[in-house]
């Protein structure tokens, strides 16, 4: 039983997932700081601090939900424009510098069929 557990834990995808979660948590702190310390103050200087927490519909606190939605959208905006877009540009630039891959040789049966076709044409 312990041998099966050991095999499960030592599988490559489990370790990759664990590393991804840890790196994701650390990266999340960077994105949250970008939003909280840079983007929110800029928005506050331009439009005033957006705070919907006072909005209520009976017993439902709609304002806190709206704050969460706005916060999510700001994090998504920051992540897309400050991380995803620059990474896509870097990948495009690196692909331009790579030589074109040589075309793969056709399989042997295709070569044989082409030879037969050419022989029949003659």
UniProtKB/TrEMBL annotation:
Belongs to the MscL family. The chain crosses the membrane at residues 12-35, 65-85. InterPro entries: Mechanosensitive_channel_CS, MS_channel, MSC/AndL, MscL_channel. GO terms for cellular component: plasma membrane. This is Large-conductance mechanosensitive channel. It is a multi-pass membrane protein. The keyword Transport applies.
């Amino acid at each position: 039983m312990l041998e099966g557990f050991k095999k499960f834990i030592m599988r490559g995808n489990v370790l990759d997932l664990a590393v991804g979660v840890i790196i994701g948590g650390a990266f999340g702190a960077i994105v949250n700081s970008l939003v909280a310390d840079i983007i929110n103050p800029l928005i506050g200087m331009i439009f005033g601090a957006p705070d919907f927490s006072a909005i209520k519909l009976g017993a439902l606190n709609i304002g806190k939900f709206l704050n969460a939605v706005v916060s999510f959208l700001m994090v998504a905006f920051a992540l897309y424009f400050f991380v995803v877009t620059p990474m896509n540009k870097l990948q495009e630039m690196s692909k331009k510098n790579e030589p074109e891959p040589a075309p793969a040789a056709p399989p042997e049966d295709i070569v044989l069929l082409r030879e037969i076709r050419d022989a029949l044409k003659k």
